[in-house]
């Protein structure tokens, strides 16, 4: 389909084409410091609070009773209005920005409203888009699960017997989910330097195996009461939208702590998500089939269709402190064996209450071959080989000052990209501990 | 010490003596339906919103700038004022209710304020006392950890090599933490009925091994920013107070799902806490030594003193649908090998941000012998033997309609008890699944 054309100048390589319209939370860098909702469009953002105040939604009268959602510091209230409203608002904004808008007087020809609500992106700052209620991380990237399992237990026992029956997941830490750009401090913790020693005695210090996890995050918009599961056929309606996610992981802390109750301090020091929430509708044209699962699923996990993941081109850059950047991974969002609707159906099947603002992580997304691995653990074969970087540099795990940048984009047609922008974090050195 | 005497009639066996003054959230059953803070005292509650409105805090001028915390639907804002303020308010209220109050005109002789703020407990309803940010469940009850580990791996390998080095914990589900009295629906889920089959194939249905976990919950009052650990010496100051907790567990769902990332649907369908938060200060006289740990701890876990758990007498009653009640466990809160300050120091040592309203669970508290086990799993030796109940009834795990009541109380002197009241939940049958 031909790109939608806008009267606003939108760079053709922008992730935020008229086909996208992702939602986020901004402040202005210089004046208005209160957090408020916005959409990203090309090199601009539309401040939805100013836009609503300036009668920008006059062409969408059904939204009138709900305009206060755009005076909130998070997107939770807007998300809670549900997918039909997100759909209407996105379509309305696409129309307003299009060359052939049916309401030119509202924005296209209204320089006063443009002045108050349409801000250059570089004059704004983005914030965590939602107040995260609970954060759950799944393990749906089967290639990663196989690679990680092989390192620990050998290829024959890499995947547990439950893997193809259950979208395996664990509860994560919501308080340390942060927006792209937030510095991540290397964690201190207990490290078992000699795993073969008997007895095993840990030492204390900064993690030496600090890693990334390339994931897709899914933010929910719908609540189900405790005790009332979300049926698989309705689970898609619980999705507000998607973000890129880096689930930073301290492999050495994790290895010593995780038996028998799972990862804890190896993960809870920080999880970065991208700032702009790409709506479910915007990704709809990029549906793709899940990876094959030969196992006969229990009915509560059987989806009406198989194309329930998305063809998102994913890239990971590592920038060293001297500023040289290497793309260390090129993968795709298709590499999942479980979809988010399946994760939602499973998460709630025993009665767990889900809420708008809950964050679900896909688990690390890796290609089957070495081109698009989602963690340094896999790229370095468990820390056994060097990852080659530009400028003769090498890494096994992250050094202080390293920056990780994840990018994700759908489609290839200039002017019609649907992307996530970037999910960025820089590693700060561990605090000295008394 | 002699019991503090009150001008208000307080039953001598009340958990809510003048020595206690626990905080909660109430609504009135008949009129005022908005949630508001209160304290429990004997068979009454003091409605703190009405009390503040009626100038009840006029004798505590330092609190004046903060009185709006008593017009909140949770205790989070009050908790965030910090331990010194909780201490002042508790002492002030103890004085106002005492026979020899220094401010008789404020409440003792003020029938108008008594009428508006001092409500019969049975005319009020309690609610979740705090908005839980994140919920973390630890595993500090070493007797339970040993018993459960023995059932799965034999006594020789019952405790993992990390157990005495790390306060093991995992992230739980905050959205399903509910107040005492909330019905708990039996979860459906994946069950591996024949664990010896090859390949392993799960079936779907209601949990057949629905269990309890007797725990103590700790609610936090202090935030630490991400990246800045809470030092062990300051960790006690992060504690707002304590509640009883029942971490309902579906053992069969848990057994099939928990490798490799820990418990998930086996736990997230519901966690019950008691309604009244017993302040840190109220438990201070009941400090007790932790269970011995011969392991040399890393410095960040070394406490300045060893008496950092509490001598709380714990009881668990099981009431069958026909109404007959059996006390199935009599234990003590002393049976922990890690204290809450140690859990806080460990939880935050890598930089995890903690917040007022975070809930930490102790893990299941069991006696070393069979008198005070904290789970049916232990009482039934993994479902192998019947637990004898009154009226010739028996159980291995919970049946629909069963009610579990946990009680906890410190001290034995009539009129001076410091107790938690009850933590109650009744099992409702699983929903039929299509």
TrEMBL record, chains A, B:
Residues the record lists as binding substrate: 139, 153, 254, 258, 364
Catalytic activity, reaction form: 4-fumarylacetoacetate + H2O = acetoacetate + fumarate + H(+)
Domain Fumarylacetoacetase N-terminal: 20-129
Keyword vocabulary terms for this entry: Calcium, Hydrolase, Magnesium, Metal-binding, Phenylalanine catabolism, Tyrosine catabolism
List of catalytic residues: 144
An individual GO BP term: L-tyrosine catabolic process
Pathway membership: Amino-acid degradation; L-phenylalanine degradation; acetoacetate and fumarate from L-phenylalanine: step 6/6
Lineage, broadest ranks: Eukaryota, Fungi, Dikarya, Ascomycota, Pezizomycotina
Family: Belongs to the FAH family.
Name of this protein: Fumarylacetoacetase
Cofactor(s) the protein requires to work: Mg(2+); Ca(2+)
EC number(s) on file: 3.7.1.2
Annotated ranges, domain Fumarylacetoacetase-like C-terminal: 136-424
Any coiled-coil regions, as ranges: none
């Amino acid at each position: 389909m031909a790109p939608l054309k806008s009267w606003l100048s939108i760079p053709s390589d922008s992730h935020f084409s008229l086909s996208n319209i992702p939602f986020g939370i901004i402040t202005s860098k210089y004046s208005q410091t209160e957090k408020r909702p916005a959409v990203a469009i090309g090199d601009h953002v539309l401040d939805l609070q100013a836009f609503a105040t300036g009668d920008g939604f006059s062409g969408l009268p059904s939204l009138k009773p709900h305009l206060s959602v755009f005076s909130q510091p998070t997107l939770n209230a807007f998300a809670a209005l549900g997918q039909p409203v997100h759909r209407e608002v996105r379509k309305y904004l696409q129309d307003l920005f299009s060359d052939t808008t049916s309401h030119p007087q509202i924005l296209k020809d209204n320089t006063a409203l443009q002045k108050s609500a349409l801000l250059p992106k570089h004059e704004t700052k983005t914030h965590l888009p939602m107040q995260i209620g609970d954060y759950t991380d799944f393990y749906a990237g089967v290639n990663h699960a196989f690679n990680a399992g092989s390192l620990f237990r050998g290829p024959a026992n890499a995947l547990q017997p439950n893997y193809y029956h259950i979208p395996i997941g664990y509860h994560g830490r919501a308080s340390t989910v942060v927006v792209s750009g937030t510095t991540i401090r290397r964690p201190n913790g207990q490290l078992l330097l000699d795993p073969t020693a008997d007895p095993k005695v840990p030492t204390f210090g900064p993690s030496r195996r600090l890693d990334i996890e390339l994931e897709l995050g899914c933010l929910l918009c719908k609540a189900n009461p405790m005790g009332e599961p979300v049926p698989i056929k309705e689970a898609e309606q619980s999705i507000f939208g998607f973000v890129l996610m880096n689930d930073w992981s301290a492999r050495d802390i994790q290895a010593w702590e995780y038996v028998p109750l799972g990862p804890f301090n190896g993960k809870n020091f920080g999880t970065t998500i991208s700032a702009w929430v790409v709506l479910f509708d915007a990704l709809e044209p990029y549906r793709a089939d899940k990876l094959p699962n030969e196992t006969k699923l229990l009915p509560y996990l059987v989806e009406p269709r198989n194309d329930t993941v998305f063809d998102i081109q994913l890239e990971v850059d590592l920038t060293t402190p001297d500023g040289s950047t290497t793309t260390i991974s090129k993968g795709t969002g298709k590499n999942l064996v479980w979809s988010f609707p399946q994760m939602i159906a499973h998460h709630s099947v025993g009665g767990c209450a889900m809420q708008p603002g809950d964050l679900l992580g896909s688990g690390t997304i890796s290609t089957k071959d070495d081109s698009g691995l989602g963690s340094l653990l896999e790229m370095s074969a468990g820390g056994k080989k060097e990852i080659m970087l530009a400028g003769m540099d090498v890494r096994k795990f992250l050094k202080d000052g390293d920056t990780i940048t994840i990018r994700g984009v759908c489609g290839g047609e200039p002017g019609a990209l649907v992307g996530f922008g970037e999910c960025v974090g820089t590693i700060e050195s561990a605090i000295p501990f008394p």
